[in-house]
Amino acid sequence: MATPSDRAPLAEQVEQLLATEGPLAIVAAGEPVLRRPTERFDGQLDPALLARFVEALRITMHAAPGVGLAAPQVGVPLRIAVIEDPAPVPEEVRLARGRVPQPFRVLVNPSYEPVGSARAAFFEGCLSVPGYQAVVARPAEVRLTCEDEQGHAVDEVVTGWPARIVQHETDHLDGMLYLDRAELRSLSSNQAVAEYWAQPAPGEAAKALGFRLPG
Ligand code: ZN
């Protein structure tokens, strides 16, 4: 529960962040804010400030570019993230990874739970761990519960690449990074991924680098 006395600092921090135009600075692994749990959003920002903050997250995600951004990645310990993926990928990648376009949306106080036992393992990366990617096996389908930016309740099943994005961003809000769940032997520079591991699925990478895939 937020009280007037602890509302002010967060709102003030966000106001200060928004005082500068353009994309916000993204903090990198090692910043404590990425490892702490976040505060549930409970009106700490008034509707106008929330709308400005969400817009700044959107601009920052586009500029990076990325397909998701969580508030702690700009130093704000609030349970809010944005996602959007135009999914400009070849057909074979779309089919293998379920990477379908995900329109822009705001996740307020999200949480997820697996639906079924199927897992999907693919390379993923993080704007707070620049330069690298690693294979993460995640539930292929999750039930997402959250609110949207207007406070309307959301309860839906998400599959494919959007399910991966939802899990990655929600994990940020629990102080987790994708590396906590990754096959560390798969860790590859962006250059190595582009050069060797651009296949739709990471089977060849698993053999060559020596890590296990689920199933
Ligand atoms: Zn991330």
UniProtKB/TrEMBL annotation:
InterPro entries: Peptide_deformylase (IPR023635), Peptide_deformylase_sf (IPR036821)
SUPFAM superfamilies, alphabetized: Peptide deformylase
Catalytic residues (positions): E169
Any single GO BP term: translation
First-tier enzyme category under EC: hydrolase
Gene3D superfamilies (alphabetical): Peptide deformylase
One Pfam entry name: Pep_deformylase
Cofactor binding, note field: Binds 1 Fe(2+) ion.
UniProt EC number: 3.5.1.88
Reaction catalysis annotation: N-terminal N-formyl-L-methionyl-[peptide] + H2O = N-terminal L-methionyl-[peptide] + formate
GO molecular function: metal ion binding; peptide deformylase activity
Cofactor requirement: Fe(2+)
UniProt entry keywords in alphabetical sequence: Hydrolase, Iron, Metal-binding, Protein biosynthesis
Binding site for Fe cation: C126, H168, H172
Family from the record: Belongs to the polypeptide deformylase family.
PANTHER family named in the record: PEPTIDE DEFORMYLASE, PEPTIDE DEFORMYLASE, MITOCHONDRIAL
Known role: Removes the formyl group from the N-terminal Met of newly synthesized proteins. Requires at least a dipeptide for an efficient rate of reaction. N-terminal L-methionine is a prerequisite for activity but the enzyme has broad specificity at other positions.
The name this protein goes by in its record: Peptide deformylase
Organism: Streptomyces cyaneochromogenes
